[in-house]
Amino acid sequence: MPCEPDRCAACSARSEGLCGSFADGDITSLHAIARRRSAPAGQVLVWAGEPATFCATVVSGVLKIVRHDAQGREQIVGLLFPGDFVGEPFADRRTESVVALKDADLCVYPRPLLEQLLEAHPPAARVLLRRALATLTNARRWMLTLGRRDARQKVAAFLLDMAERSDAVDTLELPMSRGAMGEALGLTIETVSRQMTALCRDQVIALPACRTVRLLDRSRLAALAAV
Amino acid sequence: MPCEPDRCAACSARSEGLCGSFADGDITSLHAIARRRSAPAGQVLVWAGEPATFCATVVSGVLKIVRHDAQGREQIVGLLFPGDFVGEPFADRRTESVVALKDADLCVYPRPLLEQLLEAHPPAARVLLRRALATLTNARRWMLTLGRRDARQKVAAFLLDMAERSDAVDTLELPMSRGAMGEALGLTIETVSRQMTALCRDQVIALPACRTVRLLDRSRLAALAAV
DNA sequence: CGTAGTGTTGAAGTTGCTCAATCTTTGTGG
DNA sequence: CCACAAAGATTGAGCAACTTCAACACTACG
Q1: pTM of the model
Q2: I need a surface site. Which of A160, B67, B90, B160 has the fewest CB within 10 A?
Q3: Which DSSP string corresponds to B85-150?
């Protein structure tokens, strides 16, 4: 009688994403192809341009997905939190880099084996489809911010987004530097910094520390973001 | 013995996307839930905010997917060409509008029936997963353009993208106005227009007509786009 | 105590937007 | 077939916003 492997039973991401599509008895088949890996903040897990050898589930930590162009400019195109799926099945080559913003733990699956598993276990493919569609909708929401909002609105929208993801009531810890915020928002470090201090001056937020944001007036922040 | 319905057999999108995941004998089950619909250029097929009642496959024409914010600013977040899949299964409410840029024909599926079909027919879910992942990668590529490139590079990148999609050798027909280009690029009409004439002046493209672009120097265009 | 990394602030310079006028194309009715 | 209206596209001038460049402050860590 198949039972749940200990590591999965103890995993905080057990009920999330891909893993959540497997029943306790079934999870063995996913566990069988998975190995654990951890990465310190700053480490590059995936290099754009390399062959795509694995996918993964984020167990803990935060990662950024980055694209760069011919002139070396960088744009963060996604953030990965615990439970999120990393990588793209069916794609032989990576077009984006993945970098740890904070120390992270991953559950890694070799891509060929994962693709076999997706064939053999239809609920897994459906769960990935659901997530992919949700991620796409999120990316498109972000496109509106990148294309149409000014610096103030971008920063406000970013803070709201982070607040939602960490379901913070009034204080939230940013998982990244001003530089990374700029990469995500299509702004320079300086502009991000100026907007943060401006929001502070206007009593919309407070900054007890560089990366600690207290939301003083969430509705005004939402109004500024023009969400 | 099941055979291919006439309408599907004659359809130019038969081998594309969702339909392509069904064998000639199987297509009946998709055909059974589908009805045809056509829309003239300019017609709104989906209103953001409405309940999501259907998905569809584009048979002919071009559609735009648009998001708007509280201040009414609009951003095109995707374009749909023949064979592309319209709508988001599993999402109860639309967050984006879909508008025909050119007269279009669609093959429409009621969402609940489609979702049942995805359960019953795993290859269909896998095909949608593949497409969703590819669309996501495309959206992310576009995010780099929106966030990091200046007006000249945006317009150059857009023209290259359109050239690819219509696999044009040297002359391509834009399926949209300058205004829609601006919506897609996060620029004003005026800026798009100025960049187009500048590219013309620099002998990178020629404009026999407003929406007809002749690519005079594709490699220089690529260099300008900084792809 | 010095150095490196990160963040803030200021001044000057560009880029793209706004507003406004003009030109072109398209479509409609006489 | 032409005239006219409406929509789309182009061009120009002035302005606001963001970037760039530069200096300086704060923190952490050896």
Answers
A1: 0.96
A2: B90
A3: EES-TT-SB-SSEEEESS-EEEEEEEHHHHHHHHHH-HHHHHHHHHHHHHHHHHHHHHHHHHHH--
